Amino acid sequence: MTDPLRTDADTEPDPGTGDEEARVIVVGAGPAGASAALYLARAGVDVLLLEKGSFPREKVCGDGLTPRGVHQLVRMGIDIDAPGWRRTRGMRWMCEGRQVHIDWPRLGGLPDFGLTRSRYDFDDILVRQACAAGARLRTEVKATGPLTDRAGRIVGVTAVAGADKQPRTYRAQVVVAADGASARTAIAMGLERDPTRQIATAARRYYRSASRTNDPYLELWADLRCSRTGRDLPGYGWIFPLGDGRVNVGLGSLPHRRHGAVDLRASMEQWLARLPEEWGLREENADSPLRSAALPMGFNRRPQYARGLLLVGDSAGMISPWSGEGVAQAMEAGGVAAEAVALALIRPEGPAREEALRQYPREINRLWGRYYRLGNHAADLVLGQYGYRPVLNRRVMASPVLVRSLARLLTHGADEPGHDTIDAVLHTLLRLVPTPALTRGPRRRRASSPS
Ligand SMILES: Cc1cc2nc3c(=O)[nH]c(=O)nc-3n(C[C@H](O)[C@H](O)[C@H](O)COP(=O)(O)OP(=O)(O)OC[C@H]3O[C@@H](n4cnc5c(N)ncnc54)[C@H](O)[C@@H]3O)c2cc1C
């Protein structure tokens, strides 16, 4: 019997043009794309993963994973006991001279540790896993736009390949956009950003620090100030240990509601100058330039499925509005998208398949809709105005129950079904939040260039 999901005759590039076909194309091989490709390949789907860069490669990130991210790595079959992975015991929040340690909870459904690893080879490991499962990877292939049929449905992408930018065409029945914050594929298909949602920016730099590199905690600073206005920074600073002699130090912030963009570089310099000399977070110990990038959060691009295209990870603004964490979310959404696509492809083309693909945003909404909606409100009302300082006030920091509850809320770390009273309270809180509509917000244009 032939496998309905594979099209083996088409898995070789056209010898003349280099053009290729697959059942599914995934654009972008970050955590979202690697995860989607891995789960599709595991389901036996012929999948082509297109990546504009090549691996290993740098990606501006804090390199920190909460237990939710560890859970996703374990699901993907990544060997997290191999060298290079550094386990963390919990978070340490610092605020106005006070500090509180919050160990990752011992729950049934999530690991009780976090991890750090530089994104320099983190993405490479995930992509190798996807290839080992059967995904076809093409690096140095930059998707330049969607190919659409007369109805405006995506049927592949155009691209340029290699150093000499050879024009290529890649065709598929379904396309997954996992091209990160640029969201180039989504934008070209007319899926625009919700302008009411703010985009945070974050900057990070590596430092050599013998005294901090083996810290068992992710350290977060809540009382930073915006260098320009002197006001509370609507974000936080971090020092994440990498265990290889280095720490990843950074700062992320929403734009200040009334005072506009935050100068990340100057605000970071001001903060680092406050830190003890012996930590070594000084210019002479810097191991990289300061690099910054955008953090699209709070589901800022919807719908997450339209006309053959699924949006996954940063391309859909899936970074948590509570914490700025996006790697776990990208990997988890990749899995949800892959399952929806695999189930859709066993249906005949047409309305039945379409209905199965529409299950992807519904499932994401079921899993995270209320949490993100509440997080967006929290960002609008508190975090985006005053940052985390008022939240981590003296009373909260002195109460073990309150800090543990806050930590689980910020990291989406409650067990499902609830494990203890804190989980029960958080689940009740989320049940009170109305489920968001699936397609509210952004205006939709038609894609520009039918093929
Ligand atoms: C400074 C900073 C610190 C952060 N710290 C953390 C943290 O500590 N923990 C955490 O969980 N999250 C963190 N995040 C967020 C996290 O980095 C992202 O949410 C995550 O990388 C999203 O994964 P993704 O696969 O959706 O996108 P990306 O990781 O951006 O991957 C997109 C991929 O698509 C490729 N691509 C783009 N355009 C094209 C194209 N046209 N054709 C082909 N390929 C293309 C890119 O080269 C890239 O490989 C941080 C972000 C920033 C900016």
From TrEMBL:
Domain FAD-binding: 22-363
InterPro entries (alphabetical): FAD-bd, FAD/NAD-bd_sf, Geranylgeranyl_Rdtase_fam, Geranylgeranyl_reductase
Comp. bias (Acidic residues): 10-19
Pfam families on file: FAD_binding_3 (PF01494)
SUPFAM superfamilies: FAD/NAD(P)-binding domain
Region (Disordered): 1-20
Domain of life (superkingdom): Bacteria
Record protein name field: Geranylgeranyl reductase family protein
Source organism per UniProt: Streptomyces niveus
